[in-house]
Amino acid sequence: MTTTPDLRQDHPTGTPVPPEVREAVLDVARRAGAAARVLATATRATKDAALHAMADALVASTAEIVEANAVDLERGRAAGTSAGLLDRLALTPDRVAAIAAALRELASLPDPVGEVVRGSTLPNGLRLRQVRVPLGVVGMIYEARPNVTVDAAGLALKSGNAAILRGGSAAAASNTVVVGVLREALRAAGLPADAVQSIDEHGRAGAVALMHARGLVDLLVPRGGADLIRTVVQEATVPVVETGTGNCHVYVDASADPAVALPIILNSKTQRVGVCNAAETLLVHRDAAATFLPPALAALHDAGVTLHGDDRTAAHAPEGVTVVPATEEDWATEYLSLDLAVRVVDSLEEAVDHIRAWSSGHTEAIVTADLAASETFVAQVDSAAVMVNASTRFTDGGEFGLGAEIGISTQKMHARGPMGLPELTTTKWVVHGDGQVRP
Amino acid sequence: MTTTPDLRQDHPTGTPVPPEVREAVLDVARRAGAAARVLATATRATKDAALHAMADALVASTAEIVEANAVDLERGRAAGTSAGLLDRLALTPDRVAAIAAALRELASLPDPVGEVVRGSTLPNGLRLRQVRVPLGVVGMIYEARPNVTVDAAGLALKSGNAAILRGGSAAAASNTVVVGVLREALRAAGLPADAVQSIDEHGRAGAVALMHARGLVDLLVPRGGADLIRTVVQEATVPVVETGTGNCHVYVDASADPAVALPIILNSKTQRVGVCNAAETLLVHRDAAATFLPPALAALHDAGVTLHGDDRTAAHAPEGVTVVPATEEDWATEYLSLDLAVRVVDSLEEAVDHIRAWSSGHTEAIVTADLAASETFVAQVDSAAVMVNASTRFTDGGEFGLGAEIGISTQKMHARGPMGLPELTTTKWVVHGDGQVRP
């Protein structure tokens, strides 16, 4: 009945799990655990060779992959899926090559496993090291884009983890072929094929069984829209990192230079719309409103942005620019579209309070020429990333120079902000002695 | 009806929460959040001065504290509480002084807040820093020992977090006085008294309400027995770090020097019995069994240890040493008493498999003279700490030289092993630009 890959349909809370699905998924998880034990001691050379083998195999299987993808696209078209979603789902030879290139890029990144985080020799002669080790088994539940399948498998492998993948049903045929290609490449490279497994065949019930596989799954990362993430966070009994919901704010301070502020809000809102680090609300200090808002509202309007504003914002709208009255709903919404909520605030403090009340804790930006204002904003805003005079769009593992990312954590535990390879590891204390006992 | 502070009674799953208790606890959490906002920007000097003020105030209130403690002790005695538990509950002037000294010790530790974890200048000129910041509001649910009240409050304050404390009902009178003294000292030091709050008055329902205060509590740390920890992990919807369950193993390898192995197992088992880093199972390679086990079993027996062994262990018991037949229950049990499970294994691999199957992931030790065996053990054992030729008892924040600890994490996410001040923080990405936008 649904015309788009609806995540609430794919991953509803309370989906019953038939015993045979539960057993099948637990069996997948156990095999992942056995593979993880091998991966944990695989050298960087072995893992990088496997990543290159996976890239080679994907390129060699381009025709087969594109053919399977055509089945998904045809099914999507028949179901009336939107052009935008079909585009995200589509694989061309160029896209397959780009996905393979991303694996080679991963191979070039340093291996987090084995890094000594801290170490010392204690007064009693014990040699202490805190060493990075893989988490073990990492689950990913994500949406239709088949490139995530390869990304997630590669990131997990490079960080020494076995991956259990649950992709969106809309990409089922593509993912089946891709996972088969990756597994064959792993086997050929001398690593266990079970380092990468898919549970797509078990549908929604399989996803729920994965969320409940406590003791067998060390980390579950949901990657997708707000509904998917909420469902996984609420339903999972395995450890989850909450990613990617971005109700991001740009605050234009009283002292802001309009020539700096205008490009930043335009870029934050319109450079790419459907992503978590796009801005959704603009807050403007009342002292900046009269000079900044008229040209800013006009420029945003010209860029196709629908403006949702409070009364004071509307009062500054130039002729021909409509401002839809904003409600609390607008402050709370991650539009992921060419919509922007706009509010005039009386002070920096009011801006911070607004952000603390409504933000999802992803990224907030201040545009200011006032040093003290920038420092207060940085100190008081409680989000994963705080930008001073820069676009919110920079919160990204690649932009930060961290290499690939598996998602952007909006929680405070374990990882916050872009999650790269080190965030897919834990640590182990290794202590060497010569017979020491506690007195 | 219960004669000891029973944790299942104190913290049962499914306890109904009356709306007025829920509201009262949420109000406590909101006030903690407001206090946390102040603490987040308090300087180290301010926080250390407050720690010293708290220590001074505790010492100055010794008589009042000991008097309140006498009420708890009297109630405990009347209820038939064991001598051991009464001793853990008891506060003397010397103990109050020691608790105050621990606060001064905390003041001497470096402040984790503000530490720059990573940083770089990006090609586009953005200045990037990943900075440690407080988590915000930290809840602690713990057992009867009133020193934990002060410890937890001090650790939270030093790391810039507001603390919400729920102590065991057996220490209610002591905790009420102690929390009152700490709050008064905070106020006098110019920090919000709500940086330390108790919800003891709301009983079990209050503890459950705290576990459910999602969005208002950034971290909940259960500290106590396995039942308490299990209840909190199962019931909480706020982020939890699982601490302290220690089913620890000592493995005596074929190559072990008995003169090294014997002191290590004796120390690991008997140096202190009721603690999470005490050993609960001894695994012995079959090639070491004939020489090692007879004197080891005799020495353990002489130290008052009840031995639970498999058949091959029993076969090596010297005359007069009883070995109770061990069952799977013994492999699974954290005795926390003078009991030890003993098993003979055929190989290092079998030892590792046993540990991976039964361990709680706290601490395991190998005694060996074989370098390759030590390396395999370190690589294959999946626990927070792995000891080579040293007692399991060393897994401790103080012993590791990390300063005070709030608990020992047995999970892989966020923190693993002893949790000190840095583990009570998260990070924030702070990015400074000059108007940069994404091309």
UniProtKB/TrEMBL annotation, chains A, B:
Enzyme class: oxidoreductase
Keyword match Cytoplasm: yes
GO MF term (any one): glutamate-5-semialdehyde dehydrogenase activity
Known function: Catalyzes the NADPH-dependent reduction of L-glutamate 5-phosphate into L-glutamate 5-semialdehyde and phosphate. The product spontaneously undergoes cyclization to form 1-pyrroline-5-carboxylate.
Domain Aldehyde dehydrogenase, residue spans: 22-302
Coarse class of the protein's main subcellular location: cytoplasm
Family of the protein in this entry: Belongs to the gamma-glutamyl phosphate reductase family.
Coiled-coil residue spans: none
Associated pathway: Amino-acid biosynthesis; L-proline biosynthesis; L-glutamate 5-semialdehyde from L-glutamate: step 2/2
InterPro entries, per database record: Ald_DH/histidinol_DH (IPR016161), Ald_DH_C (IPR016163), Ald_DH_N (IPR016162), Aldehyde_DH_dom (IPR015590), G-glutamylP_reductase_CS (IPR020593), Glu-5-SA_DH (IPR012134), GPR_dom (IPR000965)
Record key words, sorted: Amino-acid biosynthesis, Cytoplasm, NADP, Oxidoreductase, Proline biosynthesis
SUPFAM superfamilies with a match to the protein in the record: ALDH-like
Catalytic activity: L-glutamate 5-semialdehyde + phosphate + NADP(+) = L-glutamyl 5-phosphate + NADPH + H(+)
GO annotation, biological process: L-proline biosynthetic process
GO cellular component terms attached to this protein's record: cytoplasm
Superkingdom to which the source organism belongs: Bacteria
Subcellular location: Cytoplasm
Full protein name: Gamma-glutamyl phosphate reductase
EC assignment: 1.2.1.41
